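Thread: quick sanity check before group meeting

JM: Hey all, I'm pulling together slides for Thursday and realized we never actually wrote out the predicted structure for the chain we discussed last week. Dropping the sequence here so it's in one place. If anyone has concerns about the input, flag it before I start.
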Amino acid sequence: MAPPPDQRVSPPPTAPAAGAGDGRGGGTAGAAGSPATGATGRGGADRAPDAHASGPPARSDRAEEDVFGLYIHWPYCTRICPYCDFNVYKSRSPDPALWRHALQSSLKAHHAHWPNLRLASIFFGGGTPSLMPPGLVQDVIDTATGLWPAAPGRLEINLEANPGSAERARFADFAAAGVNRLSLGVQALDDAALALLGRDHSAAEALAALDTARACFARVSADLIYARPDQTPAAWAAELDAMIALGVDHLSLYQLTIEPGTAFAAKAARGNLRPPDAERTADLYALTQARTAAAGLPAYEISNHAAPAAESRHNRLYWQGDWYAGIGPGAHGRLPARAQIDGADGAVTTGDADHAGGLDGARRAAAVALATLAHRRPQAWLDAATGGTTPWAATGIAEAEPLDAVARGEEMVMLGLRLAEGLDLDALARRLGPAAGRLLASPALARAVAAGLIERRGRRLVVPADKRALTDAIATRLLAG
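JM (edit): ok, ran it. Output follows.
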């Protein structure tokens, strides 16, 4: 199975020697979970945060090991953006009643297997989840919160949205349904750039949507795509400064990359699309870090920037190595290997899930996590969720790969080093036991520290700010031994 997806987790930037970056933004071109304290006070800038608004949660000695988030994937868009390689489909007027039944069935089936978790966040991603009927969104929220108890802190409920006028008219209804954080796929504040990116909205519509969003939600995140063809540092600085001045408290800033199988990939192959070279993208990344930090929106993760207490709780679950369930077509999850089966606590086995056929008992016994992948095609997922003959089939999960401590640890290292605060070694030890020490006992760590690529700060390993663009390469070197 593939490594955990960016399923709204912000991808790494392109940088010299770091390999290809990422920065797609997805179907709504939404942030990783959602992607400044601002000056102009557009819209609801002075609104007090609501009872559910979320900052980074404090972590207890137990590492909140039973805390998890729900990712809900709505796969439909009105059009497919030329840079997007997510699991999305052009809207065909999906049946709300059928989707309500399927989503609720999948949630209940997940709860049947993992009842002892506590819910920290719900993230509606896609696709374009702002196309969902607000009543359906409310039913999903009510079902989830009725099944699992809340984790300590505020429950973050985020929805990705496009800035178009039809979706903008639904913002108040989404807020009434329980959504308390909106991720708005602005992508650019330039009409020519928006046309290049295949977006349906104009810059003026994006500004209007930000006004409306900030009047409806306590937390609003905006996404921008940079390192676009022919984009100069001066032009990007002006665009970024304009966005910062609008006063949103969270920005997800992605570099454009050309993904295989996309319309942009075909265009690039014909020589009709030329993104900036590695040197230019590195300059743009450095400019981004400097501008946002000076504005009080430092990067707390490679592509995500936030004012104090405005970080995305859901995305932090990914980066901290916490649990999350993926509900909907093609959604990925990371869940405890020991699930509740027919009322008894035990490891998932071939008798419980036909996905596990062929895995030997020793591998199952060694698992500390399950990497899950739901059926990709909407109809296949709907059929499984609504017509599954067993509780496992009704989850909609098509594949579940047991991860042993080494595989799970490698994921946690790769993701944890993306955070500005770095990798929490105590959390790693609690998750993995003795394997955590062995994972980082290689000479590679000592060499990385000696080379200034990694710093030890108490019980954390941190990639210095001036090396953060190389995080993926550093993590790969570290795990290579």
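AS: nice. Residues 1-63, 340-359 have pLDDT under 50 and may be disordered. The chain has two domains: 1-403, 422-480.
JM: adding both to the slides.
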